[in-house]
Specification:
By secondary structure, the chain is of the alpha/beta class. It has four domains: 113 residues, Beta-Lactamase; 77 residues, Helix Hairpins, CATH 1.10.287; 166 residues, 2-Layer Sandwich (Heat Shock Protein 90), CATH 3.30.565; 126 residues, Response regulator (Rossmann fold). It has 17 helices and 19 strands. Helix 5 packs antiparallel against helix 6. It is elongated and about 135 Å long.
Length: 559
Amino acid sequence: MTTATNTSPAPGIDVADIMALGICVIDCDLNVVQWNRTLERWTEIARDDAVGMNLGTRFPRLSSPIVRERLANVFEAGHTAIFSAALHKQFLPIPDFSRATGEQMVQRAVVRPMDHNRQYALVMIEDVTAQFHQVNQLRKERDLLQKSEAMLQTNQRKLRQAKQISERALRAKGQFLSNMSHEIRTPLGAIMGFTDLLTDTIHDAETLATINTIRRNGEHLLMIVNDILDLSKIEAGMLVVEKLECSPHDVIEAAVSLMRAAADAKGLQLDSRIVGKIPARAETDPTRLRQIVLNLLSNAIKFTASGSVRVTTEMDQSGRLLIRVRDTGRGMSNSQIERIFQPFEQADSSMVREFGGTGLGLSISRELAGMLGGALTAESELGRGSCFQLTTSLGQFDAEKMLHESCRVVPSSDRTEAINYVAESVNSAPLSCCRVLLAEDTRCMQHLIVRLCQKFDATVVCADDGHTAYELATQAQVDAEPFDVILMDMQMPLCDGYSATRRLRNDGYHGTIVALTAHALEGDREKCLDAGCNDYLTKPIDRTILSSVLKKYAPVPSA
């Protein structure tokens, strides 16, 4: 005989009493018929007291028109009424026992008819306080996230605007530097060019000494201008170093040779040697490497009253080139070493009065050293001299082609003879067949370049602006007497050199156009070449370079 399993609650236990819901039964007049233990605990109204109690009288909120209307639909139409937490929060005024805040329990109440006669309704009340607060917290977090996203979008917009402003400022600074380079270097070029011409015609010793003083000060001023432009380019992020194959030893040798006269004038011994082995050829920026070494040598000679300046070149343990410049000068303290690499700073103010200078050279040199993949440091002791150490990356090099300790700098007398021979060879080059069109708006520069070209026996025709240069070049072709070289100043009023060059190239002009500019900023050369120029010269005009450029493009005279 099979015994049925008893699944009903234990005797004496009402199912409604063991549920977590508050359950009661009411009639159509809102009188309580049943009241479970959960409601008894929530409301602190005993079951015996609750049965027969009128909910509308005990809880006036239930007598409100809206609630009574919805309850009437339960009894009259048999509809189920749901009192949601979001809209009503409390069906009955029950405290929130989970919080000591005095807040009410958030409830979800469902009221449905119990019989077909709709005399009684079952009320089930669920405590949804925790869910309600969770939803509220999620809403707050969503609102906070939306605000954060809005702030992020606002900040991104501000960053874009700031970037645009910064880029405009950078472009404006670049344009300013370009203009200042032109406005300063053009008159400097005239000053230095005409003093150079004067030395060819004057033989009086006193007058020559005066002219040389003008020339030296012009060169000094040009050096200051170049330093300021370099620093500005570094700060603006506009200075870019190249990576070219060259001989580091030759670069250092040239710098030492250039400074030998200054060392001889002070009675200083200037030596240069290789320690161990260094690559014969390597990859670096020879112009910037030479600039750093010249600055270190210039400072060493300037601040050394007697003794020597020695340059050693070797490879460090990490495979970089290590150049040391040692002097027997006055030396520096540790605090002075910290200052000298700052822009416009020198070891102390007395040095400015005694030696002059802008205090930019070492700051620029350190920045350049970093851009070359190395560093510039200093060691010194007061009264014992200083040692500056420059390291630079060498890129790819052939480890089997090395220079060793037996290599030395060519003696100054030998180099002077070699330099003079090259200069005389260039300046004496036959240019009598060379026809030059000079497009230059500055009268003094016109006069200077014409004089230099005439010294090379070249024929020169001048134009004051790009439009005139275009017409002269075009007409010369029509007349079958084309110019061999057009020296095109790139910054002129009305029609600049860029526009004139592009117009000529667009019209099929294939003659040589050499850009002539006082600009000395990174990218200027590429800008000129992109416009259609074949070559590029900067002011101040170097007669030797000008002569070699003209010789490069001039027709070969018939035998």
